[in-house]
Write a structure and sequence with these properties.
With about 150 residues, the chain is mainly α. Helices cover about 80% and strands about 0% of the residues.
Length: about 150
């Protein structure tokens, strides 16, 4: 397999991984809306795994681009250099996936921030009326016994 084909292969794997990440973020949104903390925790582990895979793929892509002669060359420039329009298609797919991931991630962040605000307001409300009196303060270690 030549260098251009290797780069296309890595980019195709990145596209697939970003699609998986987008799917995970969609499922995470559903778990946040339906207040499913166990689901969010499971999906968080899946996100960690896919992000690690994406990091490894990116490192490999950078290594291959160095072999081409530049690790700063854009996919558009690579398409022009090689005459292969597949790089432009992969570029377009990657751009749209990254944009969709950013939008969904922002939406999920808003859901999380609102939930945290709601919890803080309720905790403050309980404290005002002394509902936590007699209970240990947060961060206090009572016993090391298991």
């Amino acid at each position: 397999m030549n260098l251009a084909e290797s780069i296309k292969s890595i980019l195709s794997e990145q596209v697939a991984a970003y699609r998986t990440l987008l799917d995970i973020l969609r499922r995470e949104r559903e778990c946040l809306v339906h207040i499913d903390p166990a689901g969010v925790e499971t999906l968080s582990k899946e996100k960690d795994t896919i992000v690690l895979k994406l990091r490894l793929l990116e490192e490999e892509r950078i290594r291959l681009m160095r072999d081409v002669g530049s690790n700063t060359m854009t996919l558009k420039a690579l398409a022009e250099k090689t005459g292969n329009s597949a790089f432009l298609e992969l570029r377009s797919k990657l751009k749209s996936l990254v944009q969709a991931i950013e939008e969904l991630n922002s939406f999920n962040r808003i859901l999380i921030d609102r939930s945290l605000g709601y919890l803080k307001t309720n905790a403050h409300f309980f404290n005002i009326f002394g509902m936590n009196e007699g209970r240990p303060q947060k961060g206090m270690l009572l016993s090391k016994e298991t």
